[in-house]
Design brief:
Layout: E1 10-16, E2 22-26, E3 31-37, E4 42-47, E5 57-62, E6 77-80, E7 85-92, H1 97-104, E8 108-111, E9 121-122, H2 140-150, H3 160-166, H4 181-203, E10 219-220, E11 231-232, E12 235-236, H5 238-247, E13 264-269, E14 278-279, E15 284-288, E16 294-304, E17 319-321, E18 334-339, E19 350-352, E20 358-368, H6 370-373, E21 383-384
Parallel strand pairs: 5-6, 18-19
Antiparallel strand pairs: 1-7, 2-5, 2-8, 3-4, 3-7, 8-9, 10-13, 11-12, 13-20, 14-20, 15-18, 15-21, 16-17, 16-20
Helix pairs in contact: 2-4, 4-5
């Protein structure tokens, strides 16, 4: 998964509104997430960070081709999606996985017309199958998957020029995909160049206001002018959404929070203070100061620059967090070590890296507090180990 953490388990469920509205009975419990449309625009936050406050809620979700129903289940909130495909994108906040499964397994989904018929679907966890990557497909495969993504969707006003430019290349809404040899070569090269542009937009941002503090190199993951509608007064936030969604999957109102103690905040680093990419063959250290302004917990997670997924190592360790039993210094600070060699005396604070692989890092604050927002809190740079 793009940009995930391993401190909280994720739950995904996909819904199709082509045949008509559906009902989602979202469970009560310690969860956080959102219902989002096909273009990563939230319909509503759910769980403790949403209007239901973790008490559960019932939704009627209507797609673009259908009218709002005259009658809905008692207490249900009506949600209008601009796309037929809708994703439920959530995290379980309880530390016990069985508790998380028990909570989400109470989720019920059924067509609106099936009320009272006994025809319902219960969300069940899939425990079999192979682990696959959410990284965007490359080359011609990118366009093949884009065709599938566009299938069943309508062209929105903001996308009409994109759709017009793609059509002569054989990429159309609801169309077949049979590019000739010339088109195949053009599309293959375009996908490679497009990804390089997206990677530069994400890992070397030129968006104003990305630096968290002037005296360190930590950046905000999410541009400060980003809004979940992805449009601003001066036009569509093209660079901002390109950078954001090249790195991650999904969003919510909670990740844009400005209210202390709610939601989550993300700081990122893609290179050392000298501007060099983090090298899996070298060792680095981060001194996390005492009293991190996070109401719930904080975590640091490493990602592979090629996949934007979790780094791979034989130890299967990719993060460290305040929920773990870490070695603490006398002043309350915590030394996190990232490198290929086991650090003597700091084994429990170590995130192993792999030579030949570059990485980047997210520092998460769940329930960020006022010192984060007013920037009076300082997170030092990640430094090369001497």
């Amino acid at each position: 998964m793009l940009g995930s953490n391993v401190t909280t388990p994720y739950v995904f469920a996909w819904f199709d509104l082509t045949e008509g509205p559906i009902v989602i009975e979202y469970p009560e419990g310690a969860t956080a997430g959102s219902l989002i449309d096909w273009w990563d625009r939230p319909l509503i936050d759910v769980g403790v960070s949403g209007p239901d406050g973790g008490k559960g809620a019932k939704f009627v979700v209507v797609g673009p081709a259908h009218e709002a129903p005259e009658t809905s289940p008692a207490g249900a909130k009506l949600l209008r999606s601009r796309t037929n495909k809708v994703l439920m994108f959530c995290r379980g906040l309880d530390g016990d996985l069985k508790t998380v499964e028990a909570v989400f397994s109470k989720t019920q989904v059924y067509p609106l017309g099936a009320i009272g018929s006994g025809v319902t679907a219960l969300l069940r966890f899939k425990t079999e199958g192979e682990l696959t990557s959410m990284a965007h497909p490359q080359g011609l495969a990118y366009w093949q998957w884009l065709i599938l993504a566009l299938d069943g969707e309508r062209i929105e006003d903001r996308d009409r020029f994109f759709a017009a430019m793609l059509k002569p290349l054989g990429v159309a809404y609801g169309g077949s995909f049979s590019p000739n040899d010339r088109q195949t070569e053009l599309l293959h090269n375009a996908a490679i160049l497009g990804e390089a542009m997206a990677k530069a937009s994400a890992f070397s941002k030129r968006i104003p206001g990305m630096r968290y503090r002037d005296d360190t190199h930590w950046e905000y993951l999410i541009p400060q002018d980003f809004v979940n509608e992805q449009d601003g007064p001066d036009g569509t936030l093209l660079d901002q959404r390109t950078a954001f969604f090249y790195e991650v999957t999904g969003t919510s109102a909670a990740v844009l929070t400005k209210t202390p103690g709610t939601g989550s905040a993300y700081l990122t680093a893609y290179s050392d203070p000298d501007g060099h990419a983090f090298d899996g063959a070298k060792s680095y250290r981060l001194r996390v100061p005492a009293n991190v302004p996070a109401k719930t917990f904080w975590s640091i997670t490493l990602y592979d620059t090629e996949t934007r997924g979790l780094i791979q190592n034989k130890q299967q360790i990719v993060d460290r967090s305040s929920r773990q039993n870490l070695n603490v210094q006398n002043d309350g600070s915590i030394e996190i070590v990232m490198g290929p060699q086991t650090p003597e005396g700091l084994e429990q604070n170590w995130i192993p890296t792999t030579p030949g692989k570059a990485w980047f890092v997210y520092f998460r604050l769940f329930g960020p507090l006022e010192p984060y927002f007013d920037k009076s809190w300082r997170l030092p740079d990640i430094e090369k180990a001497i």
